[in-house]
Amino acid sequence: MEKDIITSIGIEECMKRLMKQRFKYLMAILLILAITASSGLLLRQSIRDTREKEAENILFYYREKILLQMQGTMNEANALARTAYVMEKKQIDPSDWFHTAAEPLLKREEVRLVCLFKGDVMASALPQDKFGNLVGRDLQEFSYIYTLAKVVKDLVVEGPVLLENGTGQEEVFLFLQPILMEDAYMGLVAVALDKDYVFGQMGLDELYAKGYDYELWRVEPQNGNKEVIAGSRTDTDFSQAQKTNFYLPTEWTLSIQPADGWLSSGQRLGLSLLCVLLAAFLLLMARLIYRNTVLNRTMRKTDYEDKDTGLYNRKGFTAALDGWLSDTGTDVMLFYFSIEGYTQAIRLIGPEEEAAFLKNIRPRMDDYIHSPYIAGRLDAGGYVVAVQEKMEEQQREDFAKGLSLELLMQVRIDGEKSFLMARYQYAVCRPGSGGAEEELSKLICAYYHRVDQESPIRKLTEKCRQLIEGKNDVTFDEYTDMDMMELSKTFNQYRKQVEQLAYTDPMFHVGNRPKFLRDANMLISYDKKRRFSLYCLDICSFSQYNELFSANIGDEILHEVLRRLSRPFGAYVYRINGDVFLGVSLSNEGAESFVLRLQKLFAVPIMVGSLSFPLQVRIAACLYPEHGETPGTLLDHIQSALRFAKESDQLIAIYNERLEEIIRTEADILRRMKEAIGNGTLEVWYQPIMLLEEGRYRAAEALVRLPDGKGGYFSAGQVISLAERNGIVEELGDYVLTKACAFMKEQGDRLGVQRIGINLSVQQLLLDNSAGHLLELIRSTGVDLNRITLEITESILIQSIDRASKTLEKLRQAGAHIALDDFGVGYSSLNYLSNLPVDIIKIDRSLTQQILTQPKQYKLLKTIVDMASINGLVVVAEGVETEAEQKAIAASGLQYIQGYYYARPMSDEKLMQSLQD
């Protein structure tokens, strides 16, 4: 049975080869026929072109001859017209001279009529016995050609036309010559010549004698019809004839063509014989070339081919690759494969199994590679493949990996199945960079250099590291070394546990952020049209449970939160941050309804032992694909919604157009801020501060202003908040600090400003060596440190008082002043004023606004001023807008007032103008 199958396969292969060979023969014959036909057509066209050129020359000769005869030799009317012109000038009556002048003409046999028009009236017509009755008739009573001659004022020839006389009719040619005096029409002379005489003068019969059919015709001016004047044969088609035109003044056309056609029968026969001979010659040459090709191929096959695989050997491969590079001139992808442990394995499996493996390599490559390629076997386990296809880096990697699997060798050693893998190296082979042998040598050298640098242990270590980083496409290769093979198998068995560590929260055994990204990617790739909802839940003020009780209590609360979330979300629950959770819902329930259901889940307090903990949760939601088409985009949007809920003190935030507009606005602010800082165009404004004792502006506060592109400015608080959230507040703060210090250095003395205040962010204070960095920036401008006041808000200072105090103390010791901004909001304890590293306190507007309506607030203000005086602190009141507020605050004894009552923030130019005025 197996032999029958092998036999049928062999027959099928032979039939395929035979059909392929016959197809080549057929294509060669068709090519030869095409060349022969093309050559015959070109030769035929050449003969025709030659004969047409001869015809053109003949036409030129006859056209000139006819024109010369018509306008010169046969135009007897011209001499009479000149005589009439002279007689007219002498005012001699035609009856006295015309008969005498025309008499010699009338004696000629071919002349049939001679007449004279004076103006539009025929004055004389000869012979009188035949045409005397025409005298006195008007020009319009005759043929249209008489009028035509008058109009064109030039010779008009017409014929053949019928001329009526007393005895009958005869065909003649009319020659009408107008009599002109200073280009004015005075009359005309008409002479009629016999038709046969005119034809004889043209000599058209000579054309027929030379072997040409001819046709002389003109276009009838009155109706546009074709009027044949003379022709060799009436049944001849002149559509392919050569033509020439001339005007008398009507358009005349002379057409000629060979009587036996442009190609004679003899020429056709000779051309056919020539084509047959050419075809026979080409067939003979094709046969000789084919036999020579087969012979050369046979000779090259033994020299260039590997007999075991049917692939090229090294010499054949490099020759074929050189041919590719020189013929195509395009890049070639070059791949080298080496089967590890091949030499040792074939000693154990025997020659028969090796031969079967080698014989199957070429068919495997043909099945896998779909682009034009050449392949060679360089040594026992080494192969090289060149592919004519443009590939990106990842495509080259995928191609090499796939072909290495095709070259996988399965062996059985000591009863155990093993696999020999093919390692690979690839490169781009560019024309002109070197010969094929040079490129191949460089590729093999690169392969062994990489192999030397890599060890199995190192590769296993790298793959384990990739698993830890969360990659899910890591595979552990098999090795010929038995110990390495066993280690690889062990790692493969342990792989799932490593993935579990990469995608699971170790404390609560739920998915983490990478797990959400992977699961969402799988949902989207499985069905992009399937909708799902994403919900983010944050426990409000969760840190207080850990601080007030213990971390174990906090963990128990989170465990219960996860148990409750698993009801609506199932396995799609993720912990992405301490007390922030994500959930994916595949139901079609509306987001508003689903959020309310989540809130009900946490309406009941959580019990931990005997303790009861009521939770307040903040929930954000967004939808796929409405609010994002990738997991990363969805996560960014839902975190933006949650942040918006926190900032606006809301418990629910569903991502919508308003949130999207906020996000776009924030992105626009960030972009504009980065560009303005980079370009040095970010504006720094200044609000002057009044020293009450002197009644002059002795200080100012620097404030950042970012134009919104619409003629206005973004909120300074929004700009600073975005800078803090996006990690560029240090860059922003350094910019404002440098600008303000430089302004103080250049304009401070001129404007009478003693100090300038600059706000600092807590992020600037908490950086390593922040004091040294800030002092370096200030000193780089050359300004005196004693004239710089660095302002920090009270709430930020209290939150980071230990670390911030050390930085502020270094700044104070260097000479800078420290101001506590927004005093009176939040913490505001008068008892710790003496312990803070500050020189100035700035009363917040929320306190100054209440001093007129709440006596207690005014007493508090006076107390703050007194306590500050005891501690040697300067007090500044912010946000003073009315005169009543100004008088009350001034009476409290503080030193400085800042607010719209005195001045709004303004640009540096306006500040200079205002203070100098």
Automatic annotation (TrEMBL):
GO terms for molecular function: cyclic-guanylate-specific phosphodiesterase activity. The keyword Transmembrane helix applies. Gene3D superfamilies: 3.30.70.270, EAL domain (3.20.20.450). Keywords: Membrane, Transmembrane, Transmembrane helix. It comes from the Bacteria. Pfam families: EAL, GGDEF. PROSITE patterns: EAL, GGDEF. The chain crosses the membrane at residues 25-43, 269-290. Residues 666-917 form the EAL domain. Coiled coil: none annotated. The keyword Membrane applies. Residues 530-657 form the GGDEF domain. SMART domains: EAL, GGDEF. InterPro entries: Cyclic-di-GMP_PDE-like, EAL_dom, EAL_sf, GGDEF_dom, Nucleotide_cyclase, Rev_trsase/Diguanyl_cyclase. This is Bifunctional diguanylate cyclase/phosphodiesterase. It comes from Diplocloster agilis.
